[in-house]
Design goal:
By secondary structure, the protein is α/β, with parallel strands linked by helices. The protein has helices at residues 14-21, 31-47, 98-110, 125-128, 131-134, 160-175, 205-217, 219-223, 227-234, 242-249; strands at 3-10, 51-56, 71-74, 78-79, 94-95, 116-118, 144-150, 182-188, 255-264, 269-277. The longest helix is centred in the N-terminal third of the chain and has 17 residues, at 31-47.
Length: 291
């Protein structure tokens, strides 16, 4: 069967993609960020990962506020990289395994997640900014993508607990797929940042470190938090952290952190962290259950 072997949390700041495309890997302002992704890319190559499942948010590229789904999954053989104003990127389209994507979609609907399904729509920096730092892309990507978009823009948003339960359901879907695939789940966004209003430029490194510790060791505490809690602690846009909880929910009870890089040089705390699924089975306790 398909199985999840690890999880990645990563920022998806659009300027990461711009810096990558302009070859700024050796620029002193960007080197700490790019160097931080190299151990993750090496691990993915070593493990010969077949599929990356991305929990990300669309920034009004494919969806707009007149029709913005709570959860959406891409099903298709390929997805173009969106032009978000800096020109078309020199990246091949993302590849998809339709059978696998369709299986996950059907499983999630049967698990009572009402999904929007999209095809051949462009994927923006929510997924495409960190992807070339994780996977090589010449002449093509080494594996396929399952894009799962989560609404973190237009209220009402799904709760932290709902996003976590989505991760649990995705794990069940993956483990019920009969083909032998090595899968890694990726949660994107955050960490602390605010890019508008009176707190423009706000960051909270202390909270970022606490969030990363809780995510690894005690995620149940994060599930009790409201959107207002996340915004107060990390800034308005840091509500994206709930997408990391989908990644965490898809991992097993025991995980092991292999790598973490935290770099605060712009308005966003740019972070990448790699977890290995240590037990390969089971789920975290649903919130409210006794140990």
């Amino acid at each position: 069967m398909a199985r999840i072997i690890g999880g990645i949390g990563t920022s998806h700041v659009p300027t990461i993609g711009v810096a990558y495309d302009k070859g700024k890997q050796e620029d002193p302002a960007w080197t700490p960020l790019f160097e931080g992704y190299k151990p993750v890319a090496a691990w993915l190559a070593e493990k010969k990962v077949d599929v990356l499942v991305f929990f990300y948010n669309d920034h009004c590229t494919t969806f707009f506020f007149d029709l913005y789904p709570t959860f959406a999954i891409g099903v298709g053989e390929k997805f173009p990289i969106a032009d978000e104003g800096a020109g078309l990127r020199n990246l091949p389209p993302l590849r998809g395994n339709v059978d696998f994507q369709a299986h996950i979609a059907e499983s999630l609907v049967n698990d009572e997640f009402d999904l929007t399904v999209f095809q051949e729509k462009p994927i923006d920096h929510g997924c495409a900014a960190p992807l070339p730092l994780l996977w090589p892309h010449e002449p093509d990507w080494p594996g396929t993508i399952v894009p799962i978009a989560i609404n973190v823009l237009q209220y009402p948003l799904p709760t932290a607990l709902r996003c976590y339960r989505l991760g649990l359901a995705v794990r069940r879907a993956i483990e019920s797929y009969p083909e032998d695939l090595r899968v890694v789940v990726v949660g994107t966004g955050g960490l602390s940042h605010q890019i508008h209003g009176e707190r423009t430029g706000f960051n909270n490194t202390e909270w970022d470190m606490e969030f990363l510790d809780l995510l690894e060791n005690d995620p149940a505490k994060l599930l009790q938090m409201t959107h207002a809690d996340y915004v107060r602690l990390g800034g308005a846009e840091s509500v994206e952290q709930i997408m990391w909880l989908s990644m965490r929910g898809a991992l097993g009870n025991r995980i092991r952190k292999l790598h973490q890089n935290y770099y605060l040089a712009t308005t966003t705390a740019m972070t990448v962290v790699l977890y290995e699924d240590d037990d390969g089975q089971g789920e975290l306790l649903a919130f409210g259950e006794a140990a």
